[in-house]
Amino acid sequence: MRKLAWLAAAAIAVIGAGAAEAQQTPRKGGVLRMTAPYSASFGSLDPHTTPRAQDDIVNKAIHRTLYNWDTAGNKLALELAKSVSTSADGLTHTFKLRDDVVFHNGRKMTADDLIWSYTRIMDGSKGYPAARYIRIIKGAVDVEKGQAKEISGLKKVDDFTLEMTLTDKVEPGYYFFAGSTAILPREEVEKGNFASAPVGLGPFKFKEHVPGSRVITEQFDKFYKAGKPYLDRYEILIMAEAAARDVAFRNKEIDTSILGPAQYVAYRADPQLSKGILEVAEMFTRAITFNHDAKPFDDKRVRQAINHAIDADLIVKRLVKDKAYRATSWLPPSSAAFDKSFKPYAFDQAKAKKLLTEAGFPNGFEWELTTSQNESWGLPIVEAIIPMLDKVGIKVKPKLVEATVLTEILMKGEHKSLISSNLTGPDSLATLRCFYSKTPRTACHYTNYNNPAFDNLLDAAAKEGDMAKRNDMLRQANNLLYEDAPVWFFNYNKAVLAYQPWVHGLQANPTEITHQYPEDIWVDASSPAK
Amino acid sequence: MLIVLARRLANIVPTVVAVMALVFLLFSVLPGSFISGMNEDGRSTIDPAVMERMRKEMGLDDPLPERFAKYMINVATGDLGTSFRTREPVTKLIGVRVWPSLKLVFAAMLFAISVGVTLGFLAALRPGSLIDTAAMVGAISGLSLSQFWFGLMLMYLFALTLGWLPSFGYGDGGLRNLILPAVALGVGPMALLARTTRAAVLDVLNADFVRTARSKGMSERRVVEWHVLRNALVLVVTIVGLQFGSLMGQAVVVEKLFAWPGVGSLLVDSVFQRDMPAVQGCILMIVLFFLFINTLVDLAYVAIDPRIRYR
Q: What is the rounded distance in angstroms from the CA atom of residue B224 to the CA atom of residue A368?
């Protein structure tokens, strides 16, 4: 409970900071030097081809999607449309598009651009990653399979009205806010060098890309939000090495930096640096995924025993340096279906031993755990849990692999158990479907968990049009997961962004803290960047 | 000279084929495929059926020898394939990275040769002196230093403390951004060259022909310039060639640390994303560079030591 209280306090602090910032008048002009910390290059500047967090940092500046994430309201919000109305059956959504949205080449965006962009994404010969989202539109799968040229569920009513029919009763925002569903101008894409010279609808237009080094963007003066963006230039600098980022940040060469556990401790302890720290509970749940096809993980008591046998609080405090929130179940705290009244599994090795005995393992068992080197949810964590589980008779044998291949191992079901970080938002229904018995393993059902009561709750939630009722059902389903412990619930990621004192308007985006909507950011006159 | 060149060029083809075959083999046993790279952070972003179709279209289900043969035929025509990750031609990906890589490698070698050879030479001319001791302590330290740690120390000193140079990035591609990564990359070869030069010069200084030259009354300066320098140079050039050739591959750590946009950082990203065409292209480029430099070294031998010419 103390953790949850702390979490709430942190959220209030962030909101409070936001309110204080709102009282200041944003300054026009200046440069922001944002860092892209996740790899040594960008995959592609064509947003349809890439699902990577690193690439979306650039996408947020150059491109726009139908919806965006409203950090202040902690919800999805219409971005390219003024309003949306939904039919009685909850399947057809009519979007009134903004009529003031202009591409960087000067052409106005119309409904045709949305239809063309979504149809492009469904080109089955290209395997565009966002197809997973667009597939929700009626007829999109036919295009993907090559059986149709047009998505039947998309209908242009007029230039600024789009009718979209979906296959399920879902909140469309969850499907059309990912950067990989950006609306692109057909004429520019068909020139053939779009990835080298991207043209979008975003607040900044592309100026320069030095592969492996940086992307420079400049203010777009016809951006549809009045008075925005504030910055003249938005630079995204690739800095994959945390230690180098630290030097550059302290040397005031960059304006933001993502912090790892070790730096988080150092920055919090520093009287100056501690003033510029933005924290948020991101929608990632770290857990050990048990393969229920492999004995003894088919037994709920064994899984519960493991949850009781590990002192997760101690690991979060000592190893992760408090750069995480203890997980109580699968959905993260930012989910509307998160149950704040729940407490995490208590560290109770006597209870763990008792559960193991009841399950027929009084002397424990030997267990292979696949892990990566990751400092926050990899080998160091596994090394910490080995002696804890040893005390209840469970011998853990770590199997080290690269982080890159973890998902592939899960998809093939080659694991007995595997520790990883899992995207658990913002769509709580889609997130929980990873435990739905009819979801194929390849689609994310890595545990092969099977509980008819859980399935029924999800079926009912999917049919429910009232969001409050739906969230209540999802909350019950999430609590059922807590009880059945299909995984070892470890922690929710606490993303930490350090920023310089002259930077204002940053957003504590729980979907990914580096994904800033740069039109809201401004720098005051003390910024040294020219 | 032409015979040496012809022999060297004839060796390039089997060497390249052997290296590429090894890369193919290694990648076939490594866990993961391009699908791994498309599923970042556990986001299962591609439908399994689409993945299967893509695997077929990319020929990833074909037998390994068949894929290898196709790849080598394409390479012979200048086609290095299309990157799984960026969906751009690999030649284009590598093309923009070559110049920064070459700049970094040449600058690192320039630093290594100018400092290493000079130190080694001075140390050998005054064995046991303070300069000899200092040079050799420096050389051993340079050999033992981790590039990563040394690079960080350079950043702390010259960027954070003194504020003389930028700590990272490519900037406008000028000297200011190049100095720190070049020194970090060049310190290892510099140390090796200092030790090699010292040993080679000491060896030549004790040779019979040097004693003869001195006994004939030749001045010490002339002995060093005419006999010592030229004879010691063969070994030094060998080390320079080997180090030069391998620096492109070694630059991975420095490029990542300093956010330098070279082939090394592209290679690392491509390996992690299992982007096989890009990995093969980067390795091919590094191997060709190594072979090119070593061919130049072989030609340099002939120029330096006339005895090699008559073999």
A: 66
For chain A, what percent of residues have pLDDT higher than 70?
Answer: 96
**pLDDT tens digit sequence for A54-69:** 999 999 999 999 999 9
List all residues of chain A from 383 to 422 with a beta carbon under 8 Å from chain B: 401-402, 404-411, 420-422
Q: Which residue has the tokens 């998902």?
A: A407
* Total Cβ atoms within 10 A of residue A194: 20
pLDDT band at A442 (very low <50, low <70, confident <90, very high): confident
What ipTM was estimated for this complex?
0.84
Chain A to chain B Cβ contacts (< 8 Å): 172
Chain B residues with CB under 8 Å of A419 CB are none
Predicted TM-score of the model (pTM): 0.87
Q: How far apart are CA B130 and CA B136, in angstroms?
A: 10
CA–CA dist A238, A258 (Å, integer): 12
Fold classification of A7-239+500-523 is: D-Maltodextrin-Binding Protein; domain 2 (3.40.190)
- Domain limits of chain B? 98-304
A68 reaches B (C-beta below 8 A): no
Give the pLDDT band of residue B47 (cuts 50, 70, 90).
low
Which CATH topology does A284-493 take? Dipeptide-binding Protein; domain 3 (3.10.105)
CATH number of B98-304: 1.10.3720.10
Edge-first strand order for the sheet with A92-97 is A81-86, A92-97, A161-165, A154-158
Number of Cα atoms under 13 Å in the Cβ half of residue A454: 23
Q: How close A187 gets to chain B, by Cα (Å)?
A: 19
Find the residue in A nearest to B172 (Cα).
A210
What local confidence, expressed as pLDDT, does residue B58 receive?
Answer: 76
CA distance A237 to chain B (A): 8
CA–CA separation, A277 vs A259, rounded Å? 9
